[in-house]
Amino acid sequence: MAKTSNANKKANNKTTKRSGKKETIGLVKNDAYLAPYEEAIKGRHDHYLWKLSQLTANGKKSLTDFANGHQYYGLHKTSRGWVFREWAPNATDLYLVGDFNHWQETERYRARRIEGTGNWELRLSEKALSHGQLYKMHVYWNGGMGERIPAWCRRVVQDEQTGIFSAQVWHPEQPFVWSKKNFKPSTSPLLIYECHIGMGQDAEKVGTYNEFRENVLPRIIADGYNCIQIMAIQEHPYYGSFGYHVSSFFAASSRFGTPEELKRLIDTAHRHGIAVIMDIVHSHAVKNEVEGLGNLAGDPNQFFYPGSRHEHPAWDSLCFDYGKDEVVHFLLSNCKYWIEEFHFDGFRFDGVTSMLYYSHGLGEAFCSYADYFNGHEDDNAICYLTLANQLIHEVNPRAITIAEEVSGMPGLAARIDDGGYGFDYRMAMNIPDFWIKTIKELSDEHWKPSSIFWEVKNRRADERTISYCESHDQALVGDKTIIFRLIDADMYWHFKKGDENDRAHRGIALHKMIRLVTLAAINGGYLNFMGNEFGHPEWIDFPREGNGWSYKYARRQWNLVDNHDLCYHYLGDFDKRMLEVVKGEKGFMKTPVQEIWHNDGDQVLAFMRGSLLFVFNFSPTRSFTDYGFLVPTGAYDVVLNTDAREFGGNGLADDSLTHLTNYDPLYVEARKEWLKLYIPARSAVVLRRI
Q: What pTM was estimated for this model as a whole?
């Protein structure tokens, strides 16, 4: 409590200082071009400070004390029995029905409204409920009633025969015991493996938490990633929504297993040094009324904006009302719950652009700073996101928060004290768009190193980013992964060793180069979607009526990378070695990206980070002998070559040689000399100064 109280005092002192003397806010200090919008930036920050003060009783308690709704609402086992509570201000009556009363309304299971509140409470004896029983609410309101799943329930299951979802009493005799209680993520750099539990297996089915822990986690550990980002954890009625149409925000999806099995997966990851972050969806909710929050107690606006802002025009879902304290309480408590109960190390917030703007970002161009401060922004949502980041880092100071945001809103991943929103990272969503556009629209001869270099390091100086070539978005049906854009149907016929055609060779080479240049220029972290590291073919298509409810494209074919008669392992092996090289450079994240050379005519690019020199030749036809680079004097060893035979290349260079720089009297004072290299066409090499 003292920590947050001090934070509030600091915030109040800042406000006082500003009222006496106009003090430039941090965002503007870091970027003078934001000066015309300083009042808007301060206004948003002051909105956050005002709401923080309101929720914490002027700093008398902490934000984490406020965000304890999950400990009050829902079904809980007590020393004397059970207690159930629900926020349903529009309800006139409320019953629990389930296995325990033959699904009939009985007085024993009738809740009572807590006087003067919108809360309902039911206290029961210990024998009134038992672990595993199914239940729902019958909620009455003026003019109607409905069967509902409680908003705060922690376990929801679907009947395999009927498809009906029900809440489930969940209180195992033996609580889960964590073997790793104090875990510290490794974030220098943060190397994220984006994954989905259900589609993580070779078999055409829904995979489980246990199968992922046993079959996929060891691969991630061996590959060298230090963080997994898990999609589709929050319960969602439709599997094909990829987990983005959430119905029960506090329930880990039961289609993958039990809460304890998810905890065991996270615990095992922690024991191997792997952080686990969750793809959290607070940008919208599924419309469903029986399973979700759409009309919990006769008021469709209980959780959601009224009127024209009620429904999301593109997602067929409902938009949270971030201006309601009860909704903020629900969402903040949700953040705290997943960290405390499941030991998640943080979150990737989905759909942040949709939250920030009244338009959800649809139809807006975002061409200048004025487009971020033109009155089209939802200050309530901005305030909520800032509160969420404050809370998450109060609960766990080492937590990781990432914003998926496409508009480029300044300050998103800047410090709250500077007027930012407090995310640790933002997704560098420009990079995959750039690679798709380049592959689709430009012939190889027109790939410009200057454009590539600018794009992979195009970010705000005061914000860290997660760079990536492609995520799950590019793998979905209707789109294509990078490998499929490069090779397309030839992957089916020419990806066996010895049978590769020119198109396959080109795809293998560029797949490695694209990943290497993207990773080498990071300023925060790097992300890869499950299977893309080895060039997983085809697309992702979840079971649906249009494909005969098939699981054929909702899985990962690990057998392909395991089969060394095929070319996939070349890409997988390269990905592993690439991560090793970056992790092996001490203080890599603190090293600046220093351009050594680029020549768009030659299609050659070179830059350094610390002792590592990255050299790229994007030309599809021209190899260069004794190509000179002016670098710090010394000896350089090759530590990675995309053209090495072990990675499916031609092996044209002798990587066992130590390369010595050549003296030039003009550059003695700069302590630089010429490093001359043979760089084959369509290849890249990484050297370390020794």
A: 0.95
DSSP string, 299-344: -TTSSB--GGGSEETTTTEE-B-TT-HHHHHHHHHHHHHHHHHH--
Residues near 247 by beta carbon (within 8 Å), at least 6 away in sequence: 149, 156, 165, 235, 236, 237, 285, 286, 288, 291, 292, 293
CA distance 644 to 655: 8
Q: One of 194, 223, 350, 394 is an active-site residue; which one?
A: 350
CB atoms within 10 A of CB 24: 15
Distance of CA 85 to the CA centre of its chain: 32
299 is catalytic: no
Radius of gyration of the chain (CA): 27
Which long-range contacts (C-beta less than 8 Å, at least 24 apart) are formed by 488-497?
491/535, 491/537, 492/537, 495/537, 495/566, 495/567, 495/568, 496/565, 496/566, 496/567, 497/564, 497/565, 497/566, 497/567
Do residues 198 and 232 make contact, with C-beta atoms less than 8 angstroms apart?
A: yes
How many other CB atoms sit within 10 Å of the CB of residue 50?
Answer: 13
641 φ, ψ (degrees, to nearest 5): -140, 120
Tens digit of pLDDT for each residue in 143-185?
A: 999 999 999 999 999 999 999 999 999 999 999 999 988 999 9
Active site residue 202: no
Span 461-519, pLDDT tens digits: 999 999 999 988 887 866 789 999 999 999 999 999 999 999 999 999 999 999 999 99
Catalytic residue among 86, 211, 291, 404: 404
H or E stretch at 88 = none
Cα gap 195→20, rounded to integer Å: 51
Q: List the beta bridge partners of residue 349.
A: 280, 403
Residue 202: φ, ψ to 5°:
-70, -35
| C-alpha separations of 26 from 23, 51, 64, 415, 423 in Å | 9, 20, 26, 8, 15
Scan for tokens 């003009």, then name that residue.
Answer: 666
Find residue 124's DSSP bridge partners: 82
